[in-house]
Amino acid sequence: MTLLARLRTETRAAHLAxxxxxxxxxxxxxxxxxxxLLATFLGLHxxxxxxxxxxIAEHGLHWELLPGTAxxxxxxxxxxxxxxxxxxxxxxxxxxxxxxPALVGALYVVEGARLGGQVITRWxxxxxxxxxxAFFGGDGxxxxxxxxxxxxxxxxxxxxxxxxxxxxxxxxxxxxxxxxRDRVQxxxx
Length: 189
Hints:
By secondary structure, the protein is mainly α. Helix content is 70%, strand content 0%. The protein has helices at residues 3-22, 31-59, 68-78, 83-87, 100-128, 134-137, 142-156, 162-180. The model is unreliable at 183-189 (pLDDT under 50).
């Protein structure tokens, strides 16, 4: 089993639980919920992006992060949020990504979210029309990028680190689940 396949298998329950908690789909989209979702992702993604970027440099990993935080800020600004309001969004402490397996696990979550972002972009466009979707829209090449991530991770992480990478990915999902609960209202509220 490849590392990417193992990560998918061993994080499936955590991933589905996060999707259930978010309850963000075609029937639940409103502009306010979309803004809450972007703000939640900013509070989670910005600290994680900083930690991951530092760990990538520390480990000499050949991977370039896409501008997630900048895109979230741009989307919120495009929705009329002031720089002060954006800065006031609570940030959640990221999981520890200092080890190579933890870094690979966190990158799995970050890069996998780009795949889901393509679906969210379509839902938002269908319901809200032309609103900023730079964060979820990404670079338009999420599937290919995710496959490249799998190849890079497999080459960078010894097989003995796979279990720790899966644990780290699950920890990252847990941080996302707990961090969003304070911001995103359940469907129907």
